[in-house]
């Protein structure tokens, strides 16, 4: 399409857009460039379109003119109708306003009528309330008047009715109602005060003599009886309170002075004795008096408070002290049981409650007696133990031994080479000749030193015992055993040996009380005593000695420790107790009057074993303690001989010697000779072991040091003086019953010390001193010609040679000779 055609179509396109809002559909027209020259033509086209549109509008208006006129007429008619309706509405509103005034007047009149009705109802209710208040006030006045006349029960009933009237008042939440309530409470307090005053007159304690109690059922001029007073207190919920108060007065003025054993006031007019019978009679009088004069309700409350306290006091101050602690007084105890049982039966017949405590005390009589017996025995034993060692007394241990008819009895000085049995072989119970003969054919075995009984474990005994090396037990006085079949076949004879030792006061007291308990048990087991009230406790009585001994083992170490030789006294005391218990068992089994069941109750063998272990433990603890002290003096865990100062070494040895001698002297006044020698020998042996051990622990040893050690050993050998036999060390008993007595005092015991017998390292230490001062030739002589090989092994001698001499050809030659030698050497390995 040419540009001229496009320019010519611009005007119609604009008109079409103005009328219809449409764009040209052809791309060439829509995208054509409009130049200024075509605008006038376009405006002309638009004006032509405008003119055509106006002409069309005028034509349409001329065609619709009648319709427009009709619409305008209708509009004027509608306007007139609206105006008429407005005037009508105004008239209606005016008439409605007149009706509202008339309705308001009517409502005012109705409200006035309702007000008059309410005022009438209020006046009616007010009149009724005032009448009720007047009635309540009159009732309160009447109640107060009746209470003033002490007619308590009637006053309480009227007060309760008045309270109900107050609850029904139509004005319950007003000040008037509160005032009435307050007056009721005040009146209730007033009635309670009157009741308390009446009660004090009904239950009256004499002001001058408080032990006089007057109970009035009624009082002249008082409108309240005793029963009514109880009912009144129930209304106040104070029956338990007045019962408690009555009990306190009754107890303070009458019962406590009578039941308290420290008082001297009694209920009876004539003063009775301080016996359970008189007490039961007086209590029965009190109960009968209360039952006859007090209402049942008060009696029930009073007895609930009274009986537990009375029973506890009577039991603690009268009945329990009346329980005997032995068989003495059992007859009186039985009478007391009869009296208490009769008293409880009397209370039951009187319907007096809470008598179970007295019946229980009677039915458990045997248990109570057994408990008292046990408690008394244990307390007495504990008190005796608290006294400590006391004054030591001498005792003798007797031993019977079988020896060949042609064999001489040797004293302690000559027994160094005999075979020694266990330490307690010399502490056996004396046996008859036949038993002793059979015993010589058996090897004797004894509990080891470390055997602990259960009781000891429970108390932790032995926890501090050293386990570095075993401590040998005390050796016997004498244990001669036939060594050949010829001696065994030869005729045997019984020899009774004895040895003195010292015991504290404790074991005799313990044995006496245990023996007394067993004797009481045997007495109760007799058929003629089956009717006694404590016969059922016989079996339990036999268990008390076990508890006494258990307490002895548990408590005595503390009291023994107060004495410097306490452990040794413990050892001796247990030995003495074991001997006595064995004798007691033998005598008990020989009592033909006892039944087999009674004989079976004695079970002391286990206790004897525990006592033996207990004594051994004390002995061991003492030696362990002394060993520690000696080792501390000699350097403790260090090598004592390492010190380069001669003064220190000599001072240490002197201190040890002094300590051993002082300890030996202290033990000599306690232990038997055999036990003393064994204990002191252990101390001496400790010194010997320490010196020997320290020498072998040295790496080298000079000549001066060897001589110094030898001199120290010579100092130690001064302890030999402790073991020189004394003719009084061992004594014998006189012979009887076909046995032969041995008198060591008449023997020649010699003067050779017995140190080597009780200290197995003693000779070894002495030989060590000789070796340290010897040359090679002397050592060869000591080994081959003397007894050095009996104390030292080949290895030990070789070590000593290498320690003291330089390793040259002569030394090596001697060492080879010793190693190749066939000399019998000691079996002991250090």
From TrEMBL:
One of its GO terms (biological process) is endoplasmic reticulum to Golgi vesicle-mediated transport. One of its GO terms (cellular component) is RZZ complex. Coiled coil: none annotated. Transmembrane segments: none annotated. Residues 653-810 form the ZW10 C-terminal helical domain. Residues 433-487 are annotated as: Disordered. It holds the Pfam family ZW10_C2. Residues 438-449 have a biased composition (Polar residues). Residues 450-471 have a biased composition (Acidic residues). InterPro entries: Zw10/DSL1_C_sf, ZW10_C_2. It comes from the Eukaryota. PANTHER family: CENTROMERE/KINETOCHORE PROTEIN ZW10, CENTROMERE_KINETOCHORE PROTEIN ZW10 HOMOLOG. This is ZW10 C-terminal helical domain-containing protein.
